[in-house]
Amino acid sequence: MGKQWGAVLILLALSSNSVLALESGRQRSIATEEIQVKEHLTGTISRIDGKRLRISEDPDPMGCATSGIKMVDIVERTKLFRGDIAISDNNLQRGDHVTLEATHRGEILEAIEIRVQALTVPDPSH
């Protein structure tokens, strides 16, 4: 028969909180909480409202369309850095340029990690 395909996985939607997985003839139910879509984005913090950030996305260098604005929540597991130094959410400022990894929760993203671009300090000898 040629090459063996190994385990074939097919996901069928059952409801808003579970899917049916067919794996090599076996069925099992998977909670959709197990399936997380991650997103990577860069942009500038244009608004801070408590633990929610409004990020104005940078133009995509590959020319792909972006929505322009993303709402990102800082959650308990979010790791924050300015350069390589860990910071708290109180250290974030409007205008900070950030790179972040997040997962989707509806239209809102939950931040896994936020890295603020480290400020460049001018050389006083010049």
Number of structural domains: 2
Radius of gyration: 20 Å
CATH topology of the largest domain: OB fold (Dihydrolipoamide Acetyltransferase, E2P)
* CATH level-two architecture of the largest domain: Beta Barrel
Mean pLDDT across every amino acid position: 76
SS summary, helix count: 0
Q: Find the CATH superfamily of the largest domain.
A: Copper binding periplasmic protein CusF
Strand content: over 45%
Kindly state the percentage of residues in helix.
under 10%
Report the biggest beta sheet as strand number plus sense, adding barrel if it closes.
Answer: 5 strands, mixed, barrel
Please report the distance between the alpha carbons of the first and last residues.
73 Å
| Overall form | globular
The number of distinct β-strands equals 9
Q: What structural category do the secondary elements indicate?
A: mainly beta
If you had to describe this structure to a student in words, what would you say it looks like?
The protein is an all-beta fold and 126 residues long. The protein is 0% helix and 56% strand. It has strands spanning 9-15, 18-23, 26-31, 38-49, 52-57, 69-82, 85-86, 97-105, 108-116. It has a five-stranded mixed barrel with strand order 4-5-6-9-8. A three-stranded antiparallel beta sheet has the order 1-2-3, with no helix packed on it. The chain starts with 8 loop residues before the first strand and ends in a 10-residue tail after the last strand. The relative contact order is 0.18. The model is unreliable at 5-22 (pLDDT under 50).
